[in-house]
Amino acid sequence: MRNLSLVNMLARAFLAGDPAVEQVFARASRLLGRRWRWLRPLVRRYVEAFAGRTRPQHRDVVRFLLQDSGFALARTKYFDQLSIQRWLTEPQQMQPVAAAESWGVPAIESIGALADWLGLTPGELEWFADLKGLAYKRKNCQQLRHYHYKVFTKRSGSMRLIESPKRRLKEMQRQILARILDRIPCHHAVHGFCKGRSIKTFTASHVGQRVVLRMDLQDFFPSISGARVQAFFRTAGYPESVAGLMGGMCTNAAPRDAWNDAACPIDPRQLREARALYSRPHLPQGAPTSPALANLCAYRIDCRLAGLATSAGAQYTRYADDLAFSGGPEFERRVERFSIHVAAILPEEGFTANHRKTRIMRQGVRQHLAGLVVNQRVNVSRAGFDSLKAILTNCVRLGPETQNLHRHPRFRAHLEGRVGFVEMINPGRGERLRAILERIRWS
Q1: Rounded mean pLDDT for each run of 10 residues along the chain, 443 residues in total
Q2: How far apart are CA 234 and CA 105, in angstroms?
Q3: Is the separation of the CB atoms in 26 and 54 below 8 Å?
Q4: 3-class SS at 322?
Q5: Could you give the dihedral angle defined by the CA atoms of residues 227, 303, 287 and 224, in that order, rounded to the nearest 10 degrees?
């Protein structure tokens, strides 16, 4: 037990502040009450082991110490002399990686500081973070659940679970989004959920190309685990205890009965797979923090795919789970092999390609990305424009209530949004639709 306490406290000393060799050596020396000769080489090995990586967890440092042969020899040789001379009580400090030093995120260095920042007590903070998974383990206990659930079945037969946080948790997630996540830049290839970028910028670099490759990430949000989110907050510099609680507040493990309210029958095999996927802590689709965290956690795969595209003479952009590549004659000759290479890289980064949605589109066919045509210019599809024009025209002739076939509760806002989208993509077409919209008589 004495050795175990010593290892745990030594690991805490290593993690408490600046990871430079001399600073770690000074903290460890204060802990042990003596500047042991074997201590500096141990610290140097520790710094080399974790240099350039995400801030390690306490258990990772403990594992390193227990596996270090030099430390094992010192414990054996000086067993009777090694003891904790000074207990370390100061909180851990912010330790961002080099790339994160310019992000300007607020410094939160303890559980108490995080609770104050969110306006909670420490007990409330642990309840909302739910790191023990009580909301998942307790059946039909609504008091412990911080999310509302709704199941959607796609035409392809796959399922999507929308997890909407309840009011108090959503307010805190919005604070994390506004004061932390929005300060962190996205990869230059990402165009979804980034300020100043849109679906139009996502498609712009693929206009007029000889070939366009479209790929899709399967189960994008639930594929990003709670551990990955916590690792991101440690990358930003937050101590392990703070990063764990922040990650817990931004992730969720869906209970098994969340799937009971599906509107359509679900294939038993797909239901088992979905339950297994969503039962692990993951980014919930419906939380305000999830899009930003998904982009930030996917930074490494964006770097790899952008580099791969550049080496193949192609352009790469991503909009949420949609991947787009395009290029000229050289890329056209190798596009099939390139798509296989991309599909092989994705599992290495924790993602999977949805092969049924992979499309190779050459100039002789309609090249479309995220519903927009990119053959000669970014444009809405002719069929989509004609359909919307017909709905608006029938609203003028027959009344809007006759065209609300899907029972939209705010049908007027729905149509205005669709017209506004066309105006953003093609102002000329949008102007014609706007003129028809303004002729509709709303009761």
Answers
A1: 73 87 92 92 94 86 94 89 76 84 93 95 93 78 84 74 95 97 96 93 95 96 96 93 96 89 75 90 96 97 97 97 96 96 96 94 93 93 94 95 91 95 94 96 88
A2: 12
A3: no
A4: strand
A5: -30
Q: What DSSP designation does 165 have?
A: E
Q: Kindly provide the b/e burial profile for residues 172-199, where b requires at least 16 CB atoms within 10 angstroms of the residue's own CB.
A: bbebbbeebbeebebbebbbbebeebbb
Instruction: Tell me how far apart the alpha carbons of residues 83 and 395 are, in angstroms, rounded to a whole number.
Output: 82
CA angle, 168 then 170 then 176, to 5°: 110
Q: Using CA atoms, how far apart are residues 393 and 134, in angstroms rounded to an integer? A: 53
In our burial notation (b when 16+ CB lie closer than 10 A, e otherwise), range 14-43 reads: bbbbebebeebbbbbbebbeeebeebbbbb
Dihedral, 157, 321, 152, 357 alpha carbons, nearest 10: -20
Q: For residues 324 and 180, give the distance between their C-alpha atoms in angstroms, rounded to a whole number.
A: 29
State the DSSP code for 253.
Answer: -
| Strand segments (E) across 277-313 | none
pTM of the model: 0.87
Instruction: Say which residues have a Cβ less than 8 Å from residue 411's Cβ, sequence separation at least 6.
Output: 400, 403, 404
* Phi, psi dihedrals of residue 361, rounded to the nearest 5°: -120, 115
CB-count burial class (<10 Å; 0-12, 13-18, 19+) for 355: exposed
